[in-house]
């Protein structure tokens, strides 16, 4: 079978492409420019023409994916901005929403062979960022309406961290709406994955911390550099990038999803210090994270039962991240 992966050069997508190729799928990946493909071609050269890269320069343009969706069986839509460099909420929201709706529209018109679409949403589409309580339970009924409302009301004057949350929530809602409104005329179904923070080794070309994707950069700044995280006092969830890639493949083969497990940034620091893979990590406040991380539950029955997923534990994820940082010489 042939799978289209949008944003194929991303941290998550490179692992997804690798997992698909190793399982024997043919992959068509979209990238924004030719230069983004060189590293991919290099790391996947053993797979020869099983990997095809196509350029979609602007995912917000009407019909951007018209050519890319032709002849594929499954579409995995991962492309979406996740960074802290935006100067306007629309820098995040427009590509997230238009990119998602655009790929669905192209499939409706030209992707007649597509049976399933998997959209990489996020826990960002589920959390209430204004919740100051330390007990959080998220399931498929949880929606981050507060981020949408706040960004809508305050625009550029809202905290930039909310723009990403609003972008993911609006994009996921738009995907479900599209499927509902077009159910009579489409031949594919939709699976949405809502991962929490994604960690793990990176297949990307990383020369310095500036080349890390957002989640690994936050881990690097918080754990290795010892800078307080910008959301310090709440519990977070995590998943290993290799597990998330596997879940994307199983979602193509099977059905629906979620994710469970939690941490507080201090827990990551405690593990990183005890592993002693990278020396001199600032210790912070050892043990202080435990009671906080205990409050976070992400219901993951679907992921476990339908996809049959088992997740790598936190210690293993952090060990592999630190080993990877060390290999890439990101140790100071
Ligand atoms: P990366 O930043 O590594 O990759 C993002 C991908 O999306 C890249 O291919 C990037 O292309 C593309 N992209 C970003 N902005 C645009 C844009 N404006 N137009 C077209 N393409 C764009 O991110 P991740 O791999 O970490 O994230 C992948 C997906 O997973 C995203 O949808 C993200 O929201 C979601 N996710 C990630 C989590 C995490 O912790 N990492 C947690 C939960 C969800 P280019 O390189 O050209 O910019």
> What share of the residues does DSSP label as strand, in percent?
5-15%
Assign an overall shape.
Answer: globular
Protein structure class: alpha/beta
Largest sheet: 6 strands, parallel
Q: What top-tier CATH class fits best?
A: Alpha Beta
Count of helical stretches:
11
What does this molecule look like?
With 332 residues, the protein is of the alpha/beta class. It has helices at residues 11-22, 38-43, 89-110, 145-154, 160-181, 214-224, 241-253, 265-275, 290-293, 301-305, 314-327, and strands at residues 2-6, 26-31, 51-55, 74-77, 116-120, 136-138, 189-193, 197-199, 236-240, 262-263, 296-298. α4 (145-154) crosses α5 (160-181) and α6 (214-224) packs across α8 (265-275). Residues 256-261 have low confidence and may be disordered. The site of NADPH dihydro-nicotinamide-adenine-dinucleotide phosphate has 23 residues, from α1 and β8.
